[in-house]
Structures are given as structure tokens and as C-alpha cells.
Amino acid sequence: HYKQKPTPSAAPAAPEFSYLIPSTHGLQMAAELDSPQRTNLAGKKALPGREGDEWSLRWQRLLKDARSTARDEDAIVLIEELAAADPMRAISVALTETDSELRAQLLQAALRSWGATDPEAAAGWVVASQNIADQGEALAAIFHGAARDPEKAVELARKLAAQDSTRDYGGYLVAGLGRAGEFALAVEFALNGAPQPHPDWV
């Protein structure tokens, strides 16, 4: 927080979204993202943040089509690709979707993609966020993405569990590994990789 110097003119309006900046040591996140204004896909003419760039142009082309299963699937793919480059921009779009089922799918796509590039930062954001209704599903999506490198995903689960024993990171890991098709590793971790066997995870 900072004190703004008095000015005779009206202060400019605050931006609709602020973005988390991944870094080696931590994350920065503005509070605006914790209370987004939701609209459905039909109401979005451009992606928030950088109107007129390549991602917004792709989004506009997508919205020219009538709402359908195929269009929703294309939106999920676009969000997943966007999240690889700008995860918080992708999450901003996901969280402003009014359709609850599509919102969950878009959010999982964004987190899955972020999990593939920086799973520790993604998990840190989810745990700190007040805007994620089901943190377990969100963390499982992150481990789904992280499972592209299964051994590193296992290492991350153990690291996070050591830092915070109140969360079931092993269970989220097993769910993510299962979604990624790493069934043998998921079973091995559930039965032998955790401090105690968890057959209920598989």
C-alpha cells in the first residue's frame, strides 16, 4: 500500500485486472484478481490486458462462431496455450467466465499449463488465492501438468508436503499422475512413496 499524493484532477480508474509476475523467489499478485467481474464468452470481445495482440485476435476469431462444444474445446486449448506464456492472463479469463462448468474447465487448463512450466509457483498461487472454490481440483490440475516430468512432480509433492502438512499433496500428485496416464507411478507413490501407504488415493 502507498499514499497517493493529492492531485487536482481525478485519479485514473484502476485497471480491470492485475497480473502475477512469476519470479525465481516469489510471486506478486494484486487484489483485483480476487474479485473479478464475470462475463460469459459471448461478452468478451478481447482478452483482458493486451487488446489487439495475437491472443486477442485469436479470441475474437473464436467468438465469431456460435457457442458449441467445439468452440468451448477451442477456448480451452487457447487458454492452455496462453497460460504457457502468461498464466495469470489466462487465469483472469477463466475466472471471469459465468458458466460454472466451462469456468472450471478453463481454469484447469490454465493451471495444467502453468504446472508444466512452473508448478511450484502455480501451487503457491492456488494456496494463497481466495478465489478458488476447489483448491484440491486446482492442485491436481497443476500436478497433471507437472507430470510431464513425473520424477520432478514427485519431488515437488514431497517438498510441498514437508512445508505444509495440512494439505494432501500426495493425493493431489496421485490424481495428477493418473490424469497424465502415469498409472504405475501413481500406484507406486500411493502405496510406497508417502510416509504412510494410501490405497485410498488410487
Notes on the protein architecture:
With 202 residues, the protein is mainly alpha-helical. The chain is 55% helix and 0% strand. The protein is built from nine helices and no strands. The longest helix is centred in the middle third of the chain and has 18 residues, at 100-117. The N and C termini lie far apart (46 Å). The model is unreliable at 1-38 (pLDDT under 50).
Put simply, the count of helices is 9
Structural class: mainly alpha
| Span of the ends, CA to CA | 46 Å
Shape: elongated
Q: Note the beta-strand portion.
A: under 5%
Number of strands: 0
Order of helices and strands: HHHHHHHHH
Residue stretches low in confidence (pLDDT < 50, at least 5 long) are 1-38
Average pLDDT taken over every residue = 78
Instruction: Give a quick account of the main beta sheet: strands, pairing sense, barrel closure.
Output: none
Return Rg in Å: 19 Å
In quaternary terms, these chains amount to single chain
Q: What helical percentage do the residues reach? A: 55-70%
